[in-house]
Amino acid sequence: MELILKSNNEGSLDKIIALAKRLNVIVERKNIDFNNAARVNLKNRMLSFKASTPSFFGDAAEWQQHQRSDRE
Questions:
Q1: CA 72 to CA 70: how far, in whole Å?
Q2: CA–centroid distance for 56 within its chain
Q3: Does the pLDDT value for residue 34 go beyond 70?
Q4: Main-chain phi, psi angles of 10, to 5 degrees
Q5: Distances in Å between the alpha carbon of 54 and those of 11, 42, 57?
Q6: Structure pTM?
Q7: What DSSP character marks residue 31?
Q8: Is residue 23 within 8 Å of 15, Cβ to Cβ?
Q9: CB 30 within 8 A of CB 18
Q10: DSSP tally for the chain: helices H, then strands E
């Protein structure tokens, strides 16, 4: 089982880690700093994504015209 705890209070986390160690629970700590610059960079990468290959589904406009060919 995996439990993820997030807090800005280092004192509380230290107490939880100490308790976990007394209970023979393995503690793996990762410091992830998602500051504003990293968030903006990630957002820009997502917004500027361009696929390297054509879509598997084909052209949506062509499909729609084919499906609605019986309608005006």
A1: 7
A2: 24
A3: no
A4: -65, -35
A5: 52, 24, 9
A6: 0.41
A7: -
A8: no
A9: no
A10: 3, 0
